Amino acid sequence: MERVPLVKGNQVDNQTRCVHYHSEVDVIAIRFHCCGEYYACYSCHQERADHEPLRWPKRLWEERAILCGSCNHELTIQEYMNSPRCPVCHHGFNEGCRLHYPLYFEM
Q1: Is 1 part of any domain?
Q2: Distance between CA 105 and CA 52 in Å, rounded?
Q3: CA pair distance 103, 105, nearest whole angstrom
Q4: 18 found inside a domain
Q5: 100 CB-near residues (< 8 Å, 6+ apart)
Q6: Which Pfam families does the entry link to (predicted)?
Q7: What pTM value is reported for the model?
Q8: 70 closest CA partner among 100, 19, 34, 26
Q9: What digits encode the pLDDT tens for the residues 74-106?
Q10: Sheet of 64-68, strand order
């Protein structure tokens, strides 16, 4: 059985929602390039980590760094950016998160 990654953050539920983002479609966690740890969101990383975040460079967008909180499938960054839903369970993602891409990924 595959191990489900630990998702860090502030009041994270079993589908990776946190105190900052907790709607029905807020079901992804991001593995931060700086530390390799999954956090529910950028704000959770800012509050809990002891270092500044690093953005994922474009050359690494084929890395599995996005966790679907609905089914625990790990997507590549490119897969996540190209789809509004999980390719495995088809749960929709928050399309407003696109506005935050520059916090996580080099654009």
Answers
A1: no
A2: 14
A3: 6
A4: yes
A5: 42
A6: zf-CHY
A7: 0.96
A8: 26
A9: 999 999 999 999 999 999 999 999 999 999 999
A10: 7-8, 38-39, 28-31, 64-68, 74-76
